Amino acid sequence: MLANYAIIYQNIRGYHWNIQGDKFFELHLKFEELYNDFFIKIDEIAERILTLGQAPEHKYSNYLRGAKITESNDVSNGIKAIHEILDGFAILLNKERHILQLSGEIDDEGTNAQMSDYIREQEKLVWMYSAYISQG
Q1: Fewer beta carbons within 10 Å, N or C terminal of the chain?
Q2: Domains (ranges, CATH) in the chain?
Q3: From CA 15, how far away is CA 35, in angstroms rounded?
């Protein structure tokens, strides 16, 4: 999960930096909000891994090998970027729901609460970004 968060974080930074067109100002700000949130979550995930007695991976090369989310290439089109974000959310939500199930089975309340919070937030973002791109 950490690898997927690292990749989507960097993708969203790229969208923020490279966005062009008539929706530049609103998407530039939205992408910044999103990558700032992902930055915090990356740290929370790594700290949860440490709390559970493991060492979080830190090599980006290993993230690229282990993640289901792939790197974006030169995305300057806002609608295309949002589609890629939604694809990333689908992967994250699937992984988070799986971890939620496993953490419930072993009574890991800390991980359970973290995944529940992430799922709730991301489901709302999926709704909002989907509504945004359906307008045109």
Answers
A1: C
A2: 2-134 (1.20.1260.10)
A3: 10
